[in-house]
Design a protein that fits this description.
The complex is a heterodimer of chains A (293) and B (334).
Chain A: H1 2-32, H2 39-55, H3 60-83, H4 91-113, E1 129-131, E2 134-136, H5 138-160, H6 162-172, H7 174-179, H8 184-210, H9 218-231, H10 236-256, H11 265-279
Antiparallel strand pairs in A: 1-2
Chain B: H1 2-25, H2 28-53, H3 61-79, H4 83-105, H5 110-130, H6 132-135, E1 141-142, H7 156-180, H8 182-192, H9 194-199, H10 204-230, E2 232-233, H11 240-253, H12 259-275, H13 282-297, H14 301-317, H15 322-325
Antiparallel strand pairs in B: 1-2
Helix pairs in contact in B: 2-7, 2-10, 2-11, 2-12, 3-4, 3-5, 3-10, 4-10, 7-8, 7-10, 11-12, 11-13, 11-14, 12-13, 12-14
Classes of the chains: A mainly alpha (293), B mainly alpha (334).
């Protein structure tokens, strides 16, 4: 039982990372109907920027917040420069552009920072936290807190600020929003910026666990896909919940189903994606989009 | 019509003759590279059928390439089956696997299919490592290069070059006949408007899964050939970047185009070689830049660009004949 609880908690911790990245994917999907295949690589790139700051001697949280600011600006710039020209192009074109972005980020990161694995510090104390016989990693608990804090901020932002409302309107009904004076193009760009911020949080939280290297986010991204598919690409709340579910399932399956272990991690994610798409393509909380022909 | 086809046929024959003459003027290493080009071209033609002509995404064709390569390698290594037999068997195996994967894919549209195939591409190396008993785990399987049969005086590289060239010609001829005929028109119709296609009596479900199967079979044959040519298979050479490479070749050559497959293959084989001199990471940076650049500037790829130039040239010279040079099919990407 103790092991079970321990595994659930550490599953929730990794789930938080998947949730952040899944939320980034869903935000972009809602705003522009694009799945950003480069989301994970952008997060990896942001994590390297944070590593550079830390290496230069900045305190952790200063580096953390500066990275978030840079990630935001980077996301906005990418939307304005790369995505906007192909906004109305066929899906294939946009997918190709994001794939191009993926390979560019990956190779440029390898070019600048080499492919050698780098240790990445955790901002949380090393001493594990004990409750009875159960031991929780401090980083796990910290990760969950950071994720929940980010989610709370984003909820408050979208629920209570005029800008958040405008962004939701732009994603929901671009034509009418433009008529009431919302600058839809900029709202989409802000969406990309915010998505880059969530990705960066996920990257900086996962890097201490996996150690930093250019292929850091490959595995995280496939699980974030699984999370977003499970929760529904049209539902941000669903994607977050999906992230936590996927994280816990991954951990429990890895612990209790011996023939899978950690060697077939990606296959578990693949199976989850395919099963969800076959049984309930809109995900748990997604809504079906009815198209007129 | 026959008059306008004559230069094209003559040009193709000339190209084939030049390709046949290459082993007499080139080093074994160059021949090896060109064998790779032919292999990539076969795989990309398979991908073009699916993504370019039929409009179904696949970001995971490296998976079928891996299945073909491993099927061939395991047959050669474990059961001592001749490499010549393993190639069609690998093709049929991939046809079946592709058809089966195509069935659930029917329910997935656009982005979701892209997601599913992308995850497939990520999962393949792990699956290969897991079945260590068959695949040799991360060590892979080392094979021998086959010698030329019938007492031909060719070294293994030359013989493999001719073998891949032969398979390429046969598969391209088959593919061209498939795509230019009734079935090909049905495939394109599904891409352009699947509801209208269904209303005209095309069994879209059957065609879509069949195209998936045939496309996978082409890619699988390419994989099987690569196992013989490289004489080695290892899980990490079939990672997600292989799938992306094939896709890049497909886009840069020209998505809905048969000749585009060759241009794309030349690109993905030779550009990284040149870029490698700059930095280890440079090939991918250049791939990415080209991919995005082509999407903005030349969405129909090299083949589409050449076709446009050709139409312009013939039109300005002989205006009344120009009309017949306009392709009858609309070569658009979806």
């Amino acid at each position: 039982m103790d092991i079970f609880i321990q595994q659930v908690v550490s599953g929730l911790a990794t789930g938080g990372i998947y949730a952040s990245l899944a939320l980034a994917l869903v935000m972009i999907y809602q705003a522009t109907d694009v799945v950003n295949f480069a989301q994970g690589e952008l997060a990896m790139f942001a994590t390297y920027i944070c590593w550079t700051f830390l290496n230069a001697g900045f305190p952790y949280w200063v580096a953390f917040l500066s990275t978030l600011a840079i990630a935001f600006v980077g996301g906005v710039v990418i939307e304005r420069v790369l995505i906007r020209p192909v906004e109305n192009a066929p899906i294939l074109t946009i997918v190709m552009v994001t794939l191009g972005l993926l390979v560019i980020c990956n190779s440029v990161a390898g070019w600048i920072w080499t492919y050698v694995q780098k240790p990445f510090p955790s901002p949380f104390p090393e001493r594990p936290f004990k409750a009875g016989n159960i031991v929780f990693g401090a980083h796990d608990l910290g990760e969950i807190q950071v994720t929940l804090l980010v989610l709370l901020c984003i909820y408050l932002f979208f629920r209570f600020t005029p800008l958040g409302l405008a962004m939701r309107a732009a994603a929901h009904n671009p034509v009418s929003s433009r008529l009431v004076g919302i600058r839809v193009g900029w709202m989409l760009a802000l969406g990309w910026g915010l998505a880059a911020v969530f990705g960066a949080v996920a990257g900086m939280m996962v890097a201490p666990v996996l150690t930093l290297e250019p292929n850091l986010m490959g595995g995280v991204q496939i699980y974030a896909f699984a999370a977003a598919t499970l929760g529904g690409f049209t539902s941000p709340g669903g994607a977050v919940l999906g992230g936590f579910i996927v994280g816990v399932v991954e951990n429990l399956v890895g612990t209790y189903v011996h023939f899978i272990g950690t060697e077939l991690k990606f296959t578990v994610a693949l199976a989850m994606i395919i099963v969800v798409l076959l049984v309930r393509p809109t995900g748990l909380f997604g809504s079906t989009i009815v198209k007129r022909v | 019509m026959s008059a306008s086809r004559l230069p094209r046929v003559a040009g193709l024959l000339a190209l084939v003759l030049i390709a046949c003459a290459l082993p007499f003027v080139m080093s074994n290493f160059r021949l090896f590279q060109f064998s790779q080009v032919y292999i990539y071209a076969i795989a990309i033609l398979g991908l073009n059928m699916l993504t370019g002509y039929n409009g179904q995404f696949s970001l995971g064709h490296g998976a079928f390439y891996a299945i073909g390569a491993y099927a061939s390698a395991i047959m050669m290594d474990r059961w001592n089956i001749g490499y010549g037999w393993t190639i069609p068997v690998a093709g049929v195996l991939c046809l079946i696997v592709g058809f089966l994967f195509g069935l659930p894919a029917l329910r997935l549209e656009g982005l979701y299919l892209a997601l599913a195939t992308f995850s497939l591409a990520l999962a393949v190396p792990q699956i290969l490592k897991y079945f260590e008993h068959w695949t040799g785990g991360s060590q892979g399987i080392v094979l021998n290069k086959p010698n030329a049969p019938f007492g031909l005086k060719l070294n293994p590289d030359q013989w493999l070059y001719y073998l891949t060239l032969g398979v390429l010609i046969v598969l391209f001829w088959l593919g061209a006949n498939l795509l230019k005929g009734r079935i090909g028109r049905a495939i394109v119709a599904i891409r352009d408007n699947h509801i209208a296609a269904e209303a005209m009596g095309i069994n879209t479900a059957l065609y879509k899964s069949l195209v998936f199967g045939v496309s996978a079979a082409y890619t699988g044959v390419a994989g099987a050939l690569s196992a013989s040519v490289i004489a080695y298979v290892a899980p990490d050479s079939f990672n997600v970047f292989l799938s992306v490479t094939l896709l890049i070749g497909s886009v840069i050559g020209g998505l809905a185009s048969i000749s585009g497959a060759v241009f794309g293959a030349l690109f993905i084989q030779f550009v990284p070689n040149w870029a490698q001199d700059i930095s280890k990471a440079a090939p991918w940076a250049i791939f990415g830049v080209f991919l995005i650049g082509f999407m903005y500037l030349m969405p129909f790829g090299i083949a589409g660009g050449i076709r446009l130039l050709w139409i312009r040239a013939t039109r300005s010279r002989v205006p009344q004949e120009g009309r017949s040079a306009v392709p009858t099919q609309a070569h658009t990407t979806t």
